[in-house]
Amino acid sequence: MFIGHIGLALAAKRAAPRVSLGTLFLAAQWADVLWPIFLALGIEQVRILPNGRPFLQLDFISYPYSHSLLALVIWGILFGVVYRAVAGGRHTLWILAALVVSHWVLDWVTHVPDLPLYPGSAKYGLGLWNSVPGTMAVEGTIYVVGLIVYLRETRARDRIGRWAFFALAATLVVIYLASTFGAPPPSVRALWITALSGAALLLLWAWWADRHRDSTA
Known about the structure:
two-stranded antiparallel ribbon
């Protein structure tokens, strides 16, 4: 649920107006930032299905340390604690922790049963990915609502704040459509390299655009 996670991060700006959008993106996507690192290290495994349907081109064989509910609760608390130690904020710890954990909840709705509660547990998932229109409707709605909330909570300070953000919003849609209907990655190595480099670019872009916007609160 790539674009759904982003939509939730955008909406979280209302609860945490002083937190950079880049940080909110990072929290919501923390599981998907850890995952390619663990793939590269051989800690977690995935199989590419060349003839898989949209949303089902990857078989997530094992990712208990990046995507289990227990792991994300621990990661979320650590994420929030580190942020609070560096930047302060009374409530940001729990907002960021909730964003990290929300990744499992949203994935549980869309994934086929491949999400563990804890390493070694049974796997869960409601399987919305089996319906392409249903998945796109749910994710698209979350993303649009997140955009609306973010745009109401912030205003552009200059042209960068306006056009860099709208370019980011459009690019996210393009990436979503390309990843959904495009060809699967040629190899696991290409997958984790693309995932890491893409995440770094989007996080920096979100941080940069958000720096040129002010809170309306």
